[in-house]
Amino acid sequence: MSISSSDSKKRVLSGMRPTGKLHLGNYMGALYNWVRLQHEYESYFFIADLHALTSDYADTSQIKQSTLDAAVDFLAAGLDPENCTLFVQSQVKAHFELPQLLAMITPLGWLERVPTYKEQQENLTNKDLSTYGFLGYPLMMASDILLYQAHFVPVGQDQVAHVEFTREIARRFNNFYPSPPTPHASKEPDHLPAEVFPEPQVLLTPSPKLPGTDGRKMSKSYGNTILLSDPEPEIRAKLKPMVTDPARIRRKDPGNPDVCPVGDLHKVFSTAETLTKVYEGCTTASIGCIECKGWVADAIIEHLTPIQERRRRYEQDNLLVKEILEAGAQRASQRAGQTLAEVRTAIGLLPTLEGGT
Questions:
Q1: Lowest CB count within 10 Å: 29, 162, 226, 279, which one?
Q2: Range of 96's domain?
Q3: CA separation (Å) from 123 to 118, 119, 120, 128?
Q4: Domain CATH number, residue 154
Q5: What letter does residue 30 receive in the DSSP assignment?
Q6: Mean pLDDT, rounded, of the chain
Q7: Neighbours of 289 (CB within 10 A)
């Protein structure tokens, strides 16, 4: 099982923490776009189990199973190991080495000013996040990207700051440690030294508004999710009590799909024909909310059917999933090792002994 790397293809990288079985919010927010990107770019997608340790270090009992569950959902969603490199972060040793080397040049103030660092300190008050690992997670994230010398990072608007932080780290490293010139490099005065790290660009990916069953953002912490693996009866049961337009109190009251969480789901999953029926029926009160929820359940189930069929295949063959992850880790290690060799040469360190990377 192998994929070929093409010089004509730009490289993308993205990852996701293992939180167990994935839900529709995870799918539409990332996986849906990754499946498309794997055909357009040289793609690296990983399960960020080391990042999980930065905040969940006190209880690691679920990380292994959550990692395997996430891998199954990645594959079920359509990520193809023949078209992308799929791996687990901790299985590639370079993910431990590069953050340590970059830490030597990273100002403490840069870490403390990352917006999500302060936000999570304030929001996750039930956890002690005053650790070196948590403070350094933005640098670990930057290292993830720089290890593969990624040209693009597919993210939503809320993650743009992390990519900009990565660009700053790349610039700082390149300034301190330009690559030594190759034997054939131009000796002209205006010839610029080669740079180890290209500055990655943000690849803003569309992420539609996807509310949970209580109207808030779909999140496991809210208990309002629809899992990719939920069977049809459970999907319908979860949608049946879903909140709707608060102004539509009685059956005869007209509603507005644009302020209704169920309407938001229709916009993502339903056909144009169904969406037309929703708007006509809701605004004239000729349909009730139960009927409307039934239509959106039909659309979601239709979308999830091929995903769940693939999922059953991988669920029944745990060994195949582990083999795919191991093969991906080997490919990722080879690519990351090339970068680390450049990094060590630029810094002036001795090369790693064979088998040490």
A1: 279
A2: 11-209+318-347
A3: 9, 6, 5, 11
A4: 3.40.50.620
A5: I
A6: 91
A7: 18
